[in-house]
Amino acid sequence: MNVTIDASPAVHQRAGLGRYAAELIRALAASSPAEERLTLLYTEPAAARPDAALAALPARPVPLGYKPWRLLALAAHVTGLPQDGLAPGADLFHATDHLLPRMRRVRTVFTLHDLIFLKYPEHHKGYNRTFLTLMMPRFLRAADHIIAVSEHTRRDAVAAYGLPADKITVIYEAAGACYRPAATPAALGDFRRRYGLPERYILHASTIEPRKNQQRLLDAYAALRAEFPGVGLVMVGRRGWLYDDFFARLTALGLEEQVIFPGFVPEADLPRFYQAADCFVYPSLYEGFGLPPLEALACGTPVICSDAASLPEVVGTAGLLVAPADTAALTAAIRRVLADPPLRADLAARGPRQAARFSWQRTAEETRAVYRRVLGEESAGRVPRYRP
Asked: Are 249 and 215 in contact (CB under 8 A)?
């Protein structure tokens, strides 16, 4: 079985899509049977740098930037011209990046992460929204099989495009092995000093963009400042798009000096940010899966999370869930966790147990089963479906 998989989001470290592609490829490679051959395809502008695990695999770089690569796929689908030459010798191509080259002889699997551009079009950049609105139904129709990263995403796809339910398999993501409770308090103290973090802080980790609902987190934090003057707010992640209103709100609330923005941090440091935090807060309006809350759970960090979209599937009963539009409920939940050590301890104990129900090994096994089904090596009834 020769599989070519799009590693572009992993190579370019594109937030959640990048983590999905990188972890899936690592897990597939680690458990690859002798008859399976994995080849990576990725776009290669100057910034492309595969990590060591990915660099060890055969690769086929495409000398195009992100937008030209998308335009090439669009042109191929509109004209009907095949792009099988992108995956020479492949039996199957796995699209991980919401972009599916037009294949005629190569079977295809498409991972659908979310339909945010349909649910919240005002929170998407115009070019991206237009491209996905035009091309997503084409990609989903053309794919031999679709992997949805949550049951909620599967339902969204069926409702939006009338896809047959048996064309979609739900396969969950997972937290990486590096996300686990801290070994020693001393290590966390050294970490706080290295990054200039306060002894106590609320953590949020995500790209800064409207869908993440981060202005409500600012409002909640501002309301709690007088009660918890020593507690900081740390927001890890890059600036994404349409973030001017967020920073205007930050200024209006007078929080420019209180909120810490480390920016994008190396993944090796990210577990420490979770471990050292009093709680992790994620008030997102919509998620196809939601890796950051799961990573926080795996680290034993108390989680306060929106109850929107797929997030209840991920968090279960291991965190506090609030309506994303209810700032008062968000504020009250954060107050409860900060003020109640037994509650923090209870949530810290629940988190790793919930996170352990997801694993990249299982994700790889279920993904490989889909490959075999598509290639006719396994009957449809034997494709596993995991529901934590």
From this structure: yes
Could you give phi then psi for residue 321, rounded to 5 degrees? -105, 135
Residue 367 structure tokens = 């993904």
Q: How do residues 72-125 score in pLDDT, each as one tens digit?
A: 999 999 899 999 999 999 999 999 999 999 999 999 999 999 999 999 998 878
Q: How far is CA 177 from CA 287, 295, 358, in A?
A: 22, 10, 11
The model's pLDDT over 46-59, given as tens digits with 9 standing for 90+, comes to 667 777 778 889 99
Q: How far is it, in rounded angstroms, from Cα 128 to Cα 121?
A: 10
Token pair for residue 228? 């918890």
Residue 80, both tokens:
């009907």
Instruction: Please say whether the beta carbons of 237 and 207 come within 8 A.
Output: yes
Q: Please, are residues 39 and 57 in contact by the beta-carbon 8 Å criterion? A: yes
Q: Which residues contact 313 (CB under 8 A, 6 or more apart)?
A: 150, 151, 152, 172, 388
Q: What pLDDT sits at residue 377? A: 62
Bridge partners of 39?
4
Mean pLDDT confidence for 67-75 = 90
Facing residues of 233 across strands?
202, 259
Determine the angle formed by the axes of helices 126-142 and 66-79, rounding to 10 degrees: 50
Gap between the Cα atoms of 206 and 214, Å rounded:
9
The torsion of the CA quartet 19, 21, 27, 33, rounded to 10 degrees, works out to 180
Encode 77-86: b = buried (16+ Cβ within 10 Å), e = exposed.
beeeeebeeb
Answer whether 24's CB lies under 8 Å from 360's CB: yes
